[in-house]
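User: Second chain of the day. Same drill as before.
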Amino acid sequence: MTCTIGFYGYSNTGKTTVMEYLIKELTDRGFKVAAVKTTDKPISLDTEGKDTWRFAQKGAKIIALSTPVETSYILKQKNDFSSILNHVNHLNDVDVVLIEGARDPGIQKIRFGNTPIRENTVFTYDGNNEKTLEFILNKIKEEKHMDESIELKVNGKKIPLSKFPREFIIQTIVGMVKPLRGVDEVKEVELHFKLS
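Assistant: Same format as last time:
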């Protein structure tokens, strides 16, 4: 499971600067970081000096830009077509995703400035970069622990699960096996089957 944290607020409230700090600190600690910049503006890819370019300069290996007209992925390396397809199919192979401009209500967010509070806001940034970094490091640990609690493979391929499907699967299976004869307590379940 990948830890995903959003940042939102009016322009010039420090979001990009904090994300640059976080990317560098997390990268220096050995985490794989993806940075995403979302905008309502119909713009296209990267140019020097822009936010996505700045994220890459600080060490992000994958950068995504989402606009009303396209979603662009920037990998900071040269790849042949086969490698590009492999990367697209494995975009979840990062430890943390930082999203500037996050609106999705399912994503935990940090607010900057006095912009209206969005759903799933965990706190308002108070200028303390270390506090924000510590929050994200704790979220990474929580997600790693939760991810280790269930593994789903379909046709031999590991399928990443977000919180809702992970909890749904666990609770459904526990609910089905708990009343079975011979089951006193459910601590671990192994289930494997093939469809013919």
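Residues 129-148 form the longest helix (20 residues).

User: Great, on to the next one.
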